[in-house]
Structure formats: C-alpha cells, structure tokens
Specification:
This is IS91 family transposase. With about 160 residues, the chain is of the alpha+beta class. Helices cover about 20% and strands about 15% of the residues.
C-alpha cells in the first residue's frame, strides 16, 4: 500500500443501537440522491436532509452550503481505491451467500433460518403507519402480492378537492 489508511473513531453517544442506525444509513446507499437536491449553482448547493436527533415532528431540514464545501463533504463518502461497499463484499456477498451462511450457522451451532410463510391477510393492518406524502391522509393497503408477482394495473389515486 502506498499510504496508511487511518480510521477516526470516537465513542458512540447513543450506544450500539445508535451506531447501527447510523451505519445502516450509509452502507447501503449513495451519500445523497438527486431527489434531495433543491438547487445548485456556481456558488451554492441547497439540499434537504433529515435530522435524526429529532424524534417526533418534522425532521426534514434544508441546508445551503458553498459549492466547494458541498463537494468536500460529498467526497468524504467516496471509498478509497480497493475498498468495496459492505453489501458487495465478504461473507454476505451475493455469490455463494446461502452456502456461506449455512456453514457459519453450522460452525456456530445456530439454528437454521426459518422460512416463514408470508403474513396472512388477517395479520396485516389495513392502513400503513406513514401518512400519504401528498395529502397527509392515511394510506390503505389495497393489494398484497408476493415477490415476483406483478401487481394489478390501477389508475393513480385521484387528488381531493381542497
């Protein structure tokens, strides 16, 4: 290796659960999606972000940064040469994952994974926890389909008169 790669780590403030929540936000997606970008020009970039410190209410915030500072922060999320995202590498990589996990379970003496049937219609709530992002009303489950099954063709929901 040409240079040493040093990890800066500090003790977690919220315990192991907070560390896991933090890492899960960054290991399986890009640093920022296009849908979060509000505006950009030569001087500034404006984007939406979620404040995970706020537990209830509106956690969406808007931040405006100088373009060079935005690029600096974005590049902090780019992995060095030779490194791979967690989901594409190691024991849980797609290639041979079932075989590897079965061997790990056998070596650890753990139970084999139970493949439960999908939940029945009686156990699924009729509404979702999250309100509709368009009107704020409750979202109702109108169809349940298994993996690989195509949903029925439907028209988009109608907008309610204000």
């Amino acid at each position: 290796r040409k240079s040493e790669w040093v990890v800066y780590a500090k003790p977690p403030f919220g315990g192991p659960e907070a560390v896991l929540a933090y890492l899960s936000r960054y290991t399986h997606r890009v640093a920022i999606s296009n849908s979060r970008l509000i505006s950009a020009d030569a001087e500034t970039v404006t984007f939406r972000w979620k404040d995970y410190r706020i537990k209830t209410g509106d956690r969406q915030k808007v931040m405006r940064l100088a373009t060079d500072e935005f690029i600096r922060r974005f590049l902090l999320h780019v992995l060095p040469d030779g490194f791979h995202r967690i989901r594409h590498y190691g024991l849980l990589a797609s290639a041979g994952r079932k075989t590897k996990v079965a061997k790990i379970r056998a070596l650890l003496g753990a139970e084999t994974a139970k493949h439960n049937d999908p939940p029945s219609a009686e156990t699924i709530p009729l509404t979702l926890r999250q309100p509709c992002p368009e009107c704020g009303g409750p979202m109702r489950i109108i169809e349940i389909f298994r993996r690989g099954q195509k949903p029925r063709a439907r028209a988009p929901p109608r907008k309610q008169a204000a």
